[in-house]
Amino acid sequence: MMVSATTLADKQVNPALAALETPALLLDANKMDRNIERMRARLARHQVSFRPHVKTNKCMQVTQRLLDAGATSITVSTLREAEYFSSHGVKDILYAVSMSPNKLGHALRLRESGVKLAVIVDNVEMALQLNPDRLSAADRLDVLIEIDSDGHRSGVVPEAAALLEIAQALQSVGLEVGGVMTHAGDSYNCRSAAALCALAEQERAAVVRAAQRLRDAGHSCPVVSVGSTPTALFAEHLEGVTEVRAGVFIFFDLVMAGIGVCSTDEIALSVLATVIGHQKEKGWTLTDAGWMAMSRDRGTSKQPVDQGYGLVCDIAGQPLGHMLMVDANQEHGILAPRSGSTLDAPYLPVGTQVRILPNHACATAAQFPAYQVLDAQQRVTDCWPRFYGW
Amino acid sequence: MMVSATTLADKQVNPALAALETPALLLDANKMDRNIERMRARLARHQVSFRPHVKTNKCMQVTQRLLDAGATSITVSTLREAEYFSSHGVKDILYAVSMSPNKLGHALRLRESGVKLAVIVDNVEMALQLNPDRLSAADRLDVLIEIDSDGHRSGVVPEAAALLEIAQALQSVGLEVGGVMTHAGDSYNCRSAAALCALAEQERAAVVRAAQRLRDAGHSCPVVSVGSTPTALFAEHLEGVTEVRAGVFIFFDLVMAGIGVCSTDEIALSVLATVIGHQKEKGWTLTDAGWMAMSRDRGTSKQPVDQGYGLVCDIAGQPLGHMLMVDANQEHGILAPRSGSTLDAPYLPVGTQVRILPNHACATAAQFPAYQVLDAQQRVTDCWPRFYGW
Q1: Binary contact (A353, B23; C-beta < 8 A)
Q2: Would A53 be classed as within a structural domain?
Q3: CA spacing 20 to 30 A to B339: which of A35, A224, B23, B217?
Q4: How far is B316 from chain A (nearest CA, A)?
Q5: Is B272 part of any domain?
Q6: Domain range enclosing B291
Q7: pLDDT of B1
Q8: Are residues A14 and A163 in the same domain?
Q9: Helix intervals (H) in B88-192
């Protein structure tokens, strides 16, 4: 495939888009809205409530679209996210990383300020430190116990003695068990719809079993929470589950496309980059989007189709066939045909703008202070700020 | 090796350090100052001027230490860096990524505002677009030609016909050749002092030869600029070179330690993390510093000693022997003994704080909005802001 300067110039491209200084983070709002609707419809069918994970977007305007679609609560990965979103009016927040002693004061301040903040624990040591002696009943944290449903990272397995020990530890410091939660992070390693369905069921069964053990032992367990984008979209039923968390579905990315959860055309996020040079003998096109823009995430490297640092599209968002971002320096990207491709690299003149679809939306978006928002006609309609840090 | 809670509690740890909410980016100012002095002394011996690369630090207080050590000019990787540092009084700036048409207006505005901004090109297409018709002589950009000294990314090789063609293109739009520059990025792949010395000489010889060809063709070529931390520290002589750029030396990191440029004890940057749980059967310790804190950089994965996502130290900064951060989720880190280690993982109670040395200082620092600055007694003395974005 050859893409000439003329071909690119012929395309109707919004002047504001072409004039953006690069690298820039582009968000196709139309695709985002479709992705939200897909998840909303899916969860409505299961009759569970939706507590979207906003760690992916870290932006009030994006989160507002989730609230507009019916979400009334959110999941966060940092207390800074909790601070930010609660200051914008979102008051029902689950902080889904195990609580630690040095964050407890901060969490309690959020709770005292009127945030219905829930935290999680997966060990007795921490459960015993959640002592709310100095707090009124209203100020006490909701506490969920984290369940390990797939060996992926944290949590206690449903049959563990520790599950009931944690519940007893909470009781000993005057707290009720608020519920159980799990995250089937291993879903990112699934390679088929059947595997995703099976893992979704494993996730559901684990957390429902843990809830049952707690209830059998006399504990309340009102919340039964699961969540990952792949399992949320592929679960056949969610019996016994009360809420679902998921985050990356809102943008999707190449890792999600690689496991069959979306098509590349549904990816709402891309990085606009400009061609700054060539190494013609090597078939390289150099751009001004390096790893600082794309992140160092190489999440597709273990998938059947390795997408390098990202899949290269023209400025209108159409993939340039076999072109990948194959390597990265801090502010330099190297584009070249996919390994094994027998096609020549298209010649993209200096100044040509391309869009690069990211491996991992959470990681790429985190590198930027703002989204350049595009409508369905690919016009730049807005600039939405993101925050970062802890 | 066993590290008990008692052992850790016995250590004299500054209360302000222990109280930091985590993850936090720690900067040992004493080590930084020693690293700066090492580079200063090395370059003074070569009688070349120093134009440090501030893409690593993106912080005025850190850059001020470089100015205090005698630097009068800087290198940047983005125009945002140029904006920021020039607004803080640094006026002699080289933007060391090939200029592109959509950044030209921004670069000229900086120049017109009184910044002595130099840019680089490595192709005729862009050289012809640097037309300064509308500008007074004083407002014209200094332009260096980028030389490819090691096949690593951009630039023209010293013997290329393109070298003189670019010089002629500049001349045709009324610009002088401001000089030549190169970056021996391949130095990161060196594995011995001898290889580093050889690559430093290759870098020097390439750029000096390019300058000679330009001068032989009647062009001026006042600036002859080289730079990478490894070659800057290992060059045996720099005859014909006028200035050196280097950035990561100020903090150092595990990649630099892996190629023998520094010891791990000289690394000035670390991430403070807190233990949030365990998976005891797997030997895992979980922390609240995931890839969002460390970055996804796995730069040591191709080195003889793979350091995972980072080398784990106690809160005082002493390595915990064989412990690495072996895996990462967004806000979860997994610590475990180095692969092949027969030692047990030390038991680090929930709440224990550890420091993790990064693979790549530029990438890890970029994840944080600020440095927590430590003095030689590991007391938190200051908080220095960083910026990000483009």
Answers
A1: no
A2: yes
A3: B23
A4: 17
A5: yes
A6: 5-27+260-385
A7: 38
A8: no
A9: 101-112, 124-127, 161-172
Of the residues B223, B246, B269, the one at which a domain ends: B246
**Chain A contact set for B106 (CB, 8 A):** 21
Among partner residues B98, B101, B276, which is closest to A98 by beta-carbon distance? B276
Q: Does residue B137 belong to any structural domain of this protein?
A: yes
Q: Which DSSP symbol is given to A149?
A: S
Q: Are residues B205 and B268 in the same domain?
A: no
Minimum-distance CB partner of A366 among B292, B350, B369: B292
- Give tens-digit pLDDT for A270-325: 999 999 999 999 999 999 999 999 999 999 999 999 999 999 999 999 999 899 99
Burial of residue B6 (number of CB atoms within 10 Å: 0-12, 13-18, 19+)? exposed
Can you read off the two tokens belonging to residue A243?
């809420």
Rounded mean pLDDT of A344-370?
Answer: 96
Query: Do residues A212 and A148 both lie within one domain?
Result: yes
In this prediction, does ipTM exceed 0.90?
yes
Residues B239 and B108 in one domain: yes
Q: B157 is written with which tokens?
A: 């090789």
- Facing A100 at nearest CB: one of B154, B295, B351: B351
Has residue A390 been placed in a domain?
no
B233: domain CATH number is: 3.20.20.10
Does one domain contain both A276 and A370?
Answer: yes
pLDDT band at A12 (very low <50, low <70, confident <90, very high): low
Query: How many domains, in total, are found in chain A?
Result: 2
Are B233 and B249 in contact by the 8 Å Cβ rule? The answer is: yes
* Residue A212 amino acid letter: Q
Low-confidence ranges of chain B (pLDDT < 50): 1-11
How many beta-carbon pairs below 8 A join chains A and B? 171
- B189 and B63: one domain? yes
Using a CB-CB cut-off of 8 Å, the residues of chain B touching A334 are 153
B198 and B340 share one domain:
no
Other beta carbons within 10 angstroms of residue B171's beta carbon come to 14
Confidence class for position A6, pLDDT limits 50, 70, 90: very low
pLDDT in tens, B202-236: 999 999 999 999 999 999 999 999 999 999 999 99
pLDDT at B7: 43
Amino acid identity, position B330: Q
Residue B90's pLDDT is what?
98
Which of B154, B326, B371 to mutate to test binding with chain A, by most A CBs within 10 Å of its CB?
B154
- Examine the domain organization and report whether B58 and B180 are in the same domain: yes
Looking at chain A, which runs of residues are DSSP E strands? 24-28, 49-50, 74-76, 92-95, 116-121, 142-147, 179-182, 223-226, 243-244, 269-279, 284-287, 311-314, 319-328, 333-337, 353-357, 370-374, 380-385
Contact state of A154 with B276 under an 8 Å Cβ cutoff: yes
